[in-house]
Amino acid sequence: MGSYWNPGSHLYQRSLRSQIYVDKSSLIAKINAAIGTEQNCICVSRPRRFGKSMAANMLAAYYGYSEDTDVLFQELKISQDPSYREHLNRYDVVKLNMQGFLSKSNTVEEMLVIMQERVIREMKMAYPEININSVYLDWAMEDIYAHTNRSFIILIDEWDCLFREFKDDTEAQEKYLDFLRVWLKDQPYVGLAYMTGILPIKKYGTHSALNMFWEYSMSDPGDLAPFFGFMESEVKELCEQYDMSFEETRAWYDGYVFAQHHEGKDAILSMYNPKSVVEAMLRRKFGTYWNQTETYEALKIYIQMNFDGLKDAVVTMLAGGQVRINTGTFSNDMTTFGRKDDVLTLLVHLGYLTYDIDTATVTIPNNEVSQEYINAIQVLDWKEVIPIFKKSARTYPPYMTIQPCTHPSSSLYNQIPADISP
After folding, report:
1. Which of 107, 325, 347, 382 has a CA between 20 and 30 Å from the CA of residue 3?
2. 148: exposed, middle or buried (C-beta count within 10 Å: 0-12, 13-18, 19+)?
3. Three-state SS for 257?
4. What is the pLDDT of residues 191-236, one digit of tens each?
5. Which residue in 363, 385, 14, 334 sits closest to 173, CA to CA?
6. Are 115 and 176 in contact (CB under 8 A)?
7. Kind of pairing between the strands at 354-356 and 323-324
8. Does the global pTM surpass 0.90?
9. Cα 281 to Cα 350: distance, rounded to the nearest angstrom
10. Where in the chain is the domain with CATH 3.40.50?
């Protein structure tokens, strides 16, 4: 086993040993169905701490050829699926966290050289009998595939970090996308390419360089919605186990709502922030836990942008209202904004808003995120907003309507700045 080539199951075992583990292994069945098909390139974008890395670690543990991991999955949901044995430990896995390579690099070229050198070195150690003399990862993988006739599972976490670190460097972004396209598109050695990040795949003009990917984002999660974040039934079980109020948990951490079509029926799924639910259960106290991973500074930057109607939209949503947006103009980056809808769409992908695909509207999802907006508005000193807010209809924001709290100190109402309380 290596760090990148067949990395094994040790990271996934950490999750299994954790005090709270919610079984999301049914995701594997969905991914199994895509292997070796025209749909074998998958990109999942979610906000930070919504279970993306845990899922990637799980897939690495399940597919990896170098380790028998049956014992890890025997008691999980996936073990009951017909595809379980067919794909268990049958592939060479390449698992990369692009943030780690970027942090060691000054340019995208340097990042790609370092990444390929590290992976190829481990490939040579795993297959000393194969003459691998290329510095290009795609050629090296072609050589191994020709020798083993075993396709690869390629897992890329934080795939979009370059677009967040090199926000304004279009040339670097294009080079990175071109590398991924050459490496992954229409290659016979790719059994599956699975990427995760915060942003959907970047678009240039009218097309994407990675148009072979099937995307599952916060604005359109498709049938992968149940596997990232906690579902309502899972949260109810945790609340019972830890003797915590489900109603208050819902008020604090629910609000990400998705429509799903399954077996001929339409259903509305409610997704909870997993990081925050786990923290609340273990600490036995409701609070703003996910926000600590991204300070209000990030939100403040975007809501103060000078687009007509943006401030009014924020006020409307703080008062419990919905705002209609067009997500189609968003360029899937953090710098190209032409209208307020682009800013609001970015906030959907960052987790600061939730998007209803049926009504094409956005809202603030829950108490925890509402507090983030309150913090930002207080720092921005939006004095002209206060009268508008006070004159709004008597539909108070969600954080003013929650049930009495078992722990009074956790009530968000007590944290509202006095100058914007109704």
Report:
1. 107
2. middle
3. strand
4. 999 999 998 887 765 456 788 999 999 998 988 989 989 999 999 9
5. 334
6. no
7. unpaired
8. no
9. 24
10. 10-216
